[in-house]
Amino acid sequence: MTHYLDLLALLWFLVCWVGYTWYSRNRANTRSCLSNTLDLYREDWMRVMLKRDNRIADTSAVGNLERNGAFFASSCLLILAGLITALGYTSEAMEVFATMPFSIVPTRAVWELRLVVLLVVFVYAFFKFTWAMRMYNFVAVMIGSAPLAGDTKISPAAREAFACNAGKICNLAGDAFNLGLRSYYYALAVVVGFIHPLAFIAASTLVVIVLYRREFHSDALNALRDGKVFEEAIPVQQGADTKTKN
User: How do residues 9-57 score in pLDDT, each as one tens digit?
Assistant: First the structure.
């Protein structure tokens, strides 16, 4: 019975992870969320970047974003090294968890399966963080090759196309970084699963709820969304003021 419960908990974990990833990606096509709202800001960032000749602030911002990915990628390597080491001390670790209240002592195979699941989660996170780092490198290269503000040989349409493409690369980097961060949340659910399969199910569900609220109903989203509304309302207000003065 315990084995079936462990398998059910693992299946539910996969449903939560894959299902929410699919849902959030498709839901972003029909309503505002952190992901698509930040996409608009990144594209505007690239448009503003083309209007100034000094791009030191832009390259510094991209460098900071790249370093964030490098930090989490290196953390993944340290965690993976610890997990591989833990596979060699399965018996000792099982004895420690056996003393915890409400915990169910699984078989050695089930215990090692849980460690393998953690390994898979952090390997996935590592690839996402390193891919985000590479794409931020691409953005830095594009900023370095961007046409200068005073270059009259570049048409407005070409500038807009360049800004859109640079913003798209930046958006892809942000999405990869976001998926890597989500993996840390799901890894915490797997850690809770070492205590009890039902705790694993509850933790997986809680992670999805937390991610959903932060992505679609957070105060940060409201602030970012209101910022875009205010930005778009400025020209309308200026036009109204001009008509009043005339």
Answer: 999 999 999 999 999 999 988 888 999 999 999 999 999 999 988 899 9
Sign of the CA dihedral 51, 56, 62, 64? negative
- The per-residue pLDDT for range 160-209, each reduced to its tens digit, is 999 999 999 999 999 999 999 999 999 999 999 888 889 999 999 999 99
Per-residue pLDDT reduced to its tens digit, 9-22:
999 999 999 999 99
- Measured CA to CA, the distance from residue 236 to residue 245 in angstroms comes to 14
Give the position of tokens 């060699």.
Answer: 88
Q: Which residue has the tokens 């079936």?
A: 4
Alpha helices in 2-107 (DSSP H): 2-27, 34-50, 56-87, 90-98
The residue with tokens 């991209």 is 62
Domain spans of the chain, in order of start: 2-216
Q: What is the CA radius of gyration of the chain?
A: 23
Mean pLDDT of 115-122: 94
What b/e readout covers 55-75, taking b as 16+ CB neighbours within 10 angstroms? beebeebbeebbebbeebbee
Residue 87 to residues 94, 105, 124, 193, Cα–Cα distance (Å): 11, 16, 19, 16
Burial code (b: 16+ CB inside 10 Å, e: under 16) for 28-51 equals beeeebbbebbbbbbbebbeebbe
Do 203 and 213 meet the contact criterion of CB atoms below 8 Å apart? no
The DSSP symbol for 177 reads H
